Amino acid sequence: MADLSPIDLQKALNGMDYPADKKSLVDCARKNKADDKVVSRLGGLKENSFDGPNEVQKAVFNS
Known about the structure:
By secondary structure, this protein is mainly alpha-helical. It is built from four helices and two strands; from the N terminus they run H-E-H-H-E-H.
């Protein structure tokens, strides 16, 4: 998704504690007032558990 940048993702997940599940990522993004495209992308991830921000980034940008 070209209109989503790694910086948008980092801002959306600011303060996230890992490991985290997909629902926690979405909740954190909403709390941080992330753009709908970020929230939607996180909600649509195939994986459900992430050990850290690098795993989330890989899942978002390599899917």
